[in-house]
Amino acid sequence: MLWLPAAAHAEKYILIFGDSLSAGYGLDIAESWPHLLQQKLDSQGFKIVNASISGETSLGGRERIAGLLKQYRPSVVILELGANDGLRGYRIEDTEANLDAMLQDIREAHARALLVGMRLPPNYGALYTERFHAMYARLAKKRGIRLLPFLLEGVKGDQFQADNLHPSADAQPRIMENVLQNLKPLLR
Question: Is the pTM above the cut of 0.90?
């Protein structure tokens, strides 16, 4: 048996690929759910790479993901994009095509995917918001991947920053638990 120092073993990367909700907008990095997730996974040898950018759209993500997959060779990718597309009223078909292309890139990189769904505020109209939310389940079924239906499930109304869009530090542990429960099966 060959014994190597711990540093010689390849790290197992988890790539978080999202928007401001994953980038920790308005928070200290140490308060963000990706940082809290890293603390939970430290003992299991996983390294979180948070490549999330505030304001990112599905098209921007589609243009960036290939380089990150090649650079980090993650074993798991948490894909949390689409909310900015919805908030800007983009065509759902375009958002879905971009997310689907990223899921194909993830599969081709031999990584497992956790797709993170979002919901839009009701002022976008029932038809658009329902179609938008259904897009995530449709993609997860098509690709045979895990879906976290709604990142902010269980976040209370008073756990948002002044903009009423971005969760406060108080909400981050709950968000991390939402992600972790859906991530665990992919870490085996």
Answer: yes
